[in-house]
């Protein structure tokens, strides 16, 4: 039976480290989260992020805008937050309502305040110079922190990332490359996906299709990182079929695996952004 790689103990270690750094600062970093509309999942995520930020001791402000907010109005708000020296981190909760250009909005955030790590400048810093140079996307950064915490070696190992999103798949591949893994990115057009995933010693799945990853698709002894979280009724299900735990050496559970790390790394980015901006 696979070892379960829980995220909460790793997240708590991150919070303890951040608390020590915050205690040495002569100011309190501030995080501003912008939400447009009342999508239930977005409301819940924003509430969780704000609660965690306040518990850590950060200043947290939520800008809850109505569903009919126009793109120009949203860009004006981001411009104000960019110009405010007391604002250290800006996050725009996704998805945005139809009619708003998500890429344009994300690119409007100043890269030094882009705590989601999605701005092209931060993406370029990650791919050209490696993790930690800019502000890195939170979920893959959290996964790397988990793998290090559980002492899972990456150098020279074969890694397969299923999913090529800008949020998880692409930055995950970059971080694994900088850790000297041999990386393949698979996606919806990949032929014979199962043959590819069976070669992976490190398998990261970020598809969002409950149970698609079957035991027959996993190499015995592999480490499986399940990023896919889908609500089915009252349950949260991951990409990995439960039987994967009978084949793999280690698996991140859903819920309780990668999820806590995403929020932890968001707050780590906020503290890092403040330290860099304010000196």
Evaluate the radius of gyration.
Answer: 19 Å
CATH level-four homologous superfamily name of the largest domain: NAD(P)-binding Rossmann-like Domain
| Strand line-up of the largest beta sheet | 1-11-8-7-5-6
In total, the number of domains comes to 2
Q: Report low-confidence residues grouped into runs of 5 or more.
A: none
Gap from first CA to last CA: 48 Å
Helix content: 25-40%
CATH class of the largest domain: Alpha Beta
Please provide the ordered H/E string of secondary-structure elements.
Answer: EHEHEHEHHHEHEHEEEEEH
Number of helices: 9
**Total strand count, please?**
11
Strand content: 15-25%
CATH architecture of the largest domain: 3-Layer(aba) Sandwich
Say what the CATH topology of the largest domain is: Rossmann fold
Average residue pLDDT: 97
Please identify the structural class as seen in this structure. alpha/beta
What global shape is seen?
A: globular
What does this structure look like?
The chain is an alpha/beta fold. It folds into two domains: 27-110, Leucine Dehydrogenase, chain A, domain 1 (Rossmann fold, 3-Layer(aba) Sandwich); 138-259, 3-Layer(aba) Sandwich (Rossmann fold), CATH 3.40.50. 39% of the residues lie in helices and 16% in strands. The chain has helices spanning 8-23, 40-56, 71-83, 102-108, 120-129, 138-149, 169-178, 193-197, 259-278, and strands at 3-4, 30-36, 59-65, 89-92, 158-162, 182-186, 202-205, 223-226, 230-232, 235-237, 250-251. α6 (138-149) crosses α7 (169-178). The chain is globular and about 50 Å long. The protein starts with a strand and ends with a helix.
């Amino acid at each position: 039976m696979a070892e379960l790689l829980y995220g909460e103990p790793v997240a708590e270690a991150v919070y303890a480290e951040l608390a020590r750094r915050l205690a040495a600062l002569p100011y309190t970093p501030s995080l501003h989260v912008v939400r447009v509309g009342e999508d239930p999942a977005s409301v819940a995520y924003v509430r969780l992020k704000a609660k965690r930020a306040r518990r850590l001791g950060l200043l947290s402000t939520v800008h809850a805008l109505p569903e009919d907010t126009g793109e120009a109005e949203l860009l004006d708000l981001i411009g104000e937050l960019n110009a405010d020296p007391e604002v250290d981190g800006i996050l725009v909760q996704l998805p945005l309502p139809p009619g708003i250009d998500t890429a344009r909005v994300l690119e409007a955030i100043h890269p030094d305040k882009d705590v989601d790590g999605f701005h092209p400048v931060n993406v370029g810093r990650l791919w050209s110079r490696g993790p930690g140079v800019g502000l890195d996307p939170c979920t893959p950064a959290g996964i790397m922190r988990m793998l290090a915490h559980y002492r899972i070696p990456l150098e020279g190992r074969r890694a397969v990332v299923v999913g090529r999103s800008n949020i998880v798949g692409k930055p995950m591949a970059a971080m694994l490359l900088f850790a000297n893994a041999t990386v393949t990115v698979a996606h919806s057009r990949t032929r014979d996906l199962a043959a590819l995933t069976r070669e992976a010693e490190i398998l990261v799945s970020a598809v969002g299709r409950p149970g698609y990853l079957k035991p027959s698709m996993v190499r015995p002894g592999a480490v499986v990182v399940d990023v896919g979280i889908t609500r089915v009724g009252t349950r949260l299900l991951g990409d990995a079929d439960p039987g994967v735990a009978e084949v793999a050496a280690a698996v991140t559970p859903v819920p309780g695996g990668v999820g806590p790390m995403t929020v932890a790394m968001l707050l780590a980015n906020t503290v890092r952004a403040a330290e860099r901006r304010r000196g």
